[in-house]
Predict the structure.
Amino acid sequence: MNENSYCYDGNSGLLQLRLGPLVGIALVIVTFLPVPIFAQDTMPANVLAQRIEKKLLASPAVSMQFDLLGEGKVTLTADTKNHRVRIESPSMLVISDGEKIWNYQKQTERVTIDAVSASSPFKEPSSIFQFSKNYGASIVKHNGEQYQLELKPNVHLQSLLKSAGDIQAIVLDVKAHDKDITIQKATATSAKGEIRTNTLTIKSLKSVRASDFVLKMTNKMKVLDLRE
């Protein structure tokens, strides 16, 4: 029979509870039960985004290229060291040197020139690749070193991304090692339609040509200068 009893301790003057044998055994078992060990936490999405941007922006320039349904190939090249960007598709060409921006519509031969405001993302083209700062990041899937990261741009990038096919979200499949991280696949969605998932590439560039960030004017072009 398992009974608890009280006894008087003459040294302390306190009434003490004496546990029955089964209760004592139960306490011993609980004391030595193994503590569950949980699996290591997934790397936080913002940390993953920060590691990707750090690797990309360590180079002098970064390019992003994709096919947009109904538009064709879109190429964005950001000279991150000199604050210049070039965005080109079959129908338009947008160039900025960080101070002014040229928007050239190829079919109509119209060029609009405007000053770059201090708050414009064209002032700092590398902002499009600052994933931890200018995007909402979330992990879609995770298995060991393999991660699928979804990036949704904030309102600050709207004018820049509108020129680049009006991208609404980017999904990166990456492999994250302790000392390195590699983009294995990139997909995106656009307000103009789905970007073909097998053609989106994001990569670092060792160098760029200064001439790529200057619009070559011709006599056929109709120019509207909004700076005047």
Q: What stands out?
A: Residues 109 and 219 are 10 Å apart (CA to CA). The chain has two domains: 1-35, 45-225. The first strand starts at residue 5 and ends at 9. Confidence is low (pLDDT under 50) at residues 22-40.
